[in-house]
Design goal:
single chain, 682 residues, alpha+beta, Rossmann fold, 5 domains, eight-stranded mixed beta sheet, 13 helices
């Protein structure tokens, strides 16, 4: 089945049978080969131990999630590999050694119930915070079991005692009040979309069986998902529901008490949020309304009730330019905080509504070559307090706290996990095939600045995901300390320069993202950073697709490739697990005109026994129920049949993240950097 779009029966289709004995035996056979080659060296063992010690150490920052007076945290370490869900107060958290109240010991729970539980999150019922809905997955899958938990007694509430319980599914749920939920789940045949997400929303009352839940709304089977929620802001209580018609378009409605829907009439590809009297609209494409045209990437504000009554008067809170994009925003009780990216570097602002419009001021200083995010805004119970988290490639994370109008104080500081002495960060720009300037960061020892050396470049380029500087002990220990150079690319498909940085490479234009990554690879060689034989590339998920294209279309640019939890068979991706939800990103292979461009780059359809490829390591997870492990399995089998140098490793657990606990994460990091070391350094 080689050659563009060739219509031949796939000889490796059986590898899509996720848990068949034959497929699992095939995977384990290849796992053994990879373990023997890359996981049996002293260097691997040393790195795995160092990474695991870093992941398990209690010197890491315990990142909290704020809910009024409480700070919640999920924590894993050596003694608790599955993790603890716990909470404390802000005053206690500020101490060097906080006293945590343990709510759930997941290791003890899994042992008692004989289940391989992986933490999936907690939805705490507010404001009283006596109950929570706990999501647990088997082996790290997206599908989860949901169970109600009594925080005061620290016990799950059985269904026969009136507790809410959802069987394993890709469910969506939201608290309405103590005794009522909005829920979307697998209600039986016809209740899910083609993407495997809820198509129905129901109102479920305590003490009644799930099948008796009251119907609220029904989407189409071709939608991605539908969901509902409740805004409990005092004086502005609102019920709402959303219908995601594809990955980037969503219809949002207010749900009135009589069951009628009020459509929030903004572009369906825009993001609308509200707080008290304000409606905010972030545009992903230009919008002409009421005689004005607003650009993609702008953030608009208007009076919500006036808007619902037909008014279309907006105040522009943010306008993008060639170098600056809106990265995020959120409310405190009285202010709106903005995070912007200026050539992929963070700037923070505070906006305050008043009788004369919105005032704008800087919020806090941010360091260069680093990223700063705003955390723990609690507009209902937190006043105007916020937290900031800052890190860079060689700068361990610092967690700070402050309040609008006040000073910002250091709250926690993570230690360094690798030697950064002499390591510098630089930013360069490469020119892509169509002339677009593509930014990228180079992290290396200053002694490497005068000569080419082993280099690993990473990329993603999809779904408007922005990649910003951050600290990685794994990269530092596994690569930088060994004398390697690390490169982070900001190719199109991400959101580093706003929504058009993403939309410009959708569907038929996807090739531009691949050209961007190849342009950076060439630029690295032209600048003397590396050589093709010393250049490695790594990416996962959508970035795994990128790696597959690099292998099959640009093999001469690389000396080694690591391809993680990838999409690779673009002929069948929409038929596997959540794949149908990504048609808006890639295109529909069932439409001949769209398969025409997909066929030109789909890695699985474009391998060739006659081309020389760099060595490749493909990794995936059996329990990944988002991107099917069949992509990586089939690609490995095909490449091997054609005589290419291919290695494969499949983790039995881990979901789409590839690892279910710290030990698995440490193994994964160590095997990847041992692979790169052997291929590019030894």
């Amino acid at each position: 089945m080689t050659g563009v779009g060739q219509d031949v029966t796939d000889p490796y289709l059986w590898l899509e049978e996720v848990e068949s004995e034959r497929a699992l035996a095939w995977a384990e056979e290849r796992n053994a080969v990879s373990r023997e080659r890359f996981a049996s060296t002293e260097r691997f063992t040393d790195l795995e131990a160092r990474v695991l010690a870093m992941l398990d150490t209690d010197t890491r920052i315990a990142y909290p999630g704020r809910r009024g007076p409480w700070l919640y945290n999920y924590w894993r370490d050596r003694e608790h590999p599955k993790g603890l869900w716990r909470r404390t107060t802000f005053a206690e958290y500020a101490k060097d050694e906080p006293d945590w109240e343990i709510l759930i010991d997941l290791d003890a729970l899994a042992a008692a119930e004989g289940e391989n539980w992986v933490w999936g999150g907690a939805a705490v019922k507010r404001p009283e915070q006596r109950r929570a809905l706990i999501s647990l997955s088997r082996g790290g899958a997206d599908a989860k079991v949901v169970r109600e938990f009594d925080i005061e007694t620290k016990a799950f509430i059985a269904p026969e005692d009136g507790g809410f319980h959802l069987p394993e599914a890709k469910s969506d749920f939201a608290w309405i009040d103590h005794d009522t939920l909005y829920v979307g789940t697998d209600f039986g045949p016809g209740s899910l979309t083609d993407s495997g997400y809820p198509r129905l929303v129901k109102r479920w009352r305590r003490g009644t069986p799930l099948e008796a839940a009251e119907f609220v709304y029904e989407g189409e089977v071709t939608d991605v998902a539908v969901s509902a929620g409740y805004d409990r802001t005092p004086g502005y209580e609102r019920h709402f529901l959303s219908r995601a018609t594809d990955f980037f378009n969503e219809e949002v409605y207010l749900l009135e008490s009589d069951g009628t829907l009020r459509f929030i009439d903004v572009p369906t590809d825009a993001t609308e949020t509200w707080y008290k009297r304000w409606l905010l609209v972030r545009l992903k494409s230009p919008w002409e309304v009421n005689g004005a045209t607003y650009p993609a990437g702008a953030l608009l504000a208007t009076d919500f009730e006036a808007f619902l009554s037909g008014a279309r008067d907006f105040e522009v809170l943010f306008t993008p330019d060639a170098h600056t994009a809106l990265h995020g925003y959120g409310w405190t009780e009285n202010h709106l905080l903005l995070v912007t990216l200026e050539d992929v570097q963070t700037k923070l602002y505070v906006l305050t509504p008043g009788p004369d419009g919105w005032a704008r001021e800087p919020l806090a200083d941010t360091p260069a070559m680093a990223s700063t995010s705003i955390m723990n805004l609690d507009r209902l119970d937190g006043g105007d307090e916020f937290m900031l988290s800052t890190s860079g490639f060689t700068r361990p994370t610092t967690l700070m706290s402050g309040s609008v109008g006040g000073s910002v104080e250091v709250l926690k500081q993570e230690p360094g996990f690798f030697d950064t002495d002499g390591i510098v960060t630089e930013q360069f720009f490469a020119q892509s095939d169509d002339g677009t300037q593509i930014p990228y960061f180079v992290i290396r020892h200053r002694d490497r600045q005068g000569s080419p050396g082993p280099t690993v470049m990473s990329g993603y380029g999809g779904f408007e995901v922005s990649r910003t500087p951050s600290y990685s002990g794994m990269v530092g220990m596994g690569w930088l300390e060994r004398g390697g150079t690390y490169v982070m690319t900001n190719i199109r498909g991400g959101g580093e320069y706003g929504p058009e940085w993403h939309t410009s490479v959708l569907k038929a234009n996807r090739h531009k993202a691949f050209e961007d990554f190849a342009a950076v690879a060439r630029d690295l060689v032209a600048r003397g950073v590396t050589t093709p034989g010393q250049l490695g590339a790594v990416g996962g998920s959508n970035g795994g697709l990128l790696m597959g294209v690099m292998l099959t279309r640009y093999p001469e640019l690389f000396g080694a490739i690591v391809c993680q939890v990838p999409l690779l068979d673009m002929k069948r991706y929409h038929l596997l697990l959540a794949g149908a939800s990504w048609i808006a990103e890639y295109g529909d292979p069932d439409k001949p005109e769209e398969w025409d461009y997909l066929a030109k780059y789909s890695p699985y359809q474009n391998t060739s026994p006659d081309r020389q490829y760099p060595p490749i390591l493909l990794t995936t997870s059996t329990r990944d129920d988002r991107v099917h492990p069949g992509h990586a399995r089939k690609m490995a089998a095909r490449l091997a049949s054609e005589g290419h140098d291919v290695w494969y490793y499949e983790n039995i657990e881990g979901g789409h993240g590839g690892a279910a606990d710290n030990k698995q994460s440490a193994f994964q990091a160590a095997i990847i950097y041992e692979f790169f070391t052997q291929q590019l350094m030894d």
